[in-house]
Amino acid sequence: MAGSGPADSEAPKSAVPVGTAVAAQQPAGQRAATATAITLAVLLAGAGVTHFARPRPYDSIVPRWLPGPARAWTYASGAAELAAGAAIACPRTRRAGGLAAAALFAAVFPANVQMAIDWRHRPAPQRAAAIGRLPLQAPLIWWALRVRGQASNARLDSTSCATDSVTVRACFRRRQESA
After folding, report:
1. What's the angle, vertex CA 128, arms to CA 135 and CA 37, rounded to 5?
2. Each residue of 55-74: pLDDT tens digit?
């Protein structure tokens, strides 16, 4: 009968995704660090998606001194945001992702300066928003570096991303045992 062998009777301890199981076992400080990292990852992913879904506003703030078409820079920065967000979402790459996000936040600062320059004659609320973005880069850089630092102190599990499951690991163990 299929599923009645010794390897099959050894069911995984949990059928929930590993990311969920690991999060439940983490100390409160580590859970907070994970939540902070995931929040930054979601922010980056959301911003990255908007670079592709609605590129025109981003095209308009690409500094004119950069070579090539503005749309290429818009897509490149969107892809970089998606990549940094994905790296932060995975515990194994979180440290590198935090550093990449900090570098990205610094790299896009000229676009924010360009926006402030271009919007200097707009109505006061828009002008204030453009100028207000400038000092916001510093806390974003700090946040990304904090995520990086917390990742270096975190216990890295044998899983790479929250999409891994206990079932996959159990299957891998069975294959090793039968080999």
Report:
1. 40
2. 999 999 999 999 999 999 99
Rounded to two decimals, the pTM is: 0.70
User: Hey, what amino acid is at 19?
Assistant: G
Q: What angle do CA 98, 137, 108 make, to 5 degrees?
A: 80
Domain boundaries, the chain: 26-157
Phi, psi dihedrals of residue 161, rounded to the nearest 5°: -145, 165
35 strand-pairing partners? none
The answer to whether the beta carbons of residues 13 and 166 sit under 8 Å apart is yes
Average pLDDT value for residue range 106-135: 94
Sign of CA dihedral 125, 120, 73, 56: positive
Q: Which has the closest alpha carbon to 90: 139, 156, 146?
A: 156
b/e for 140-176, b at 16 or more Cβ within 10 A?
bbebbebbbebbeebeeeebeebebbbeeebeeeeee
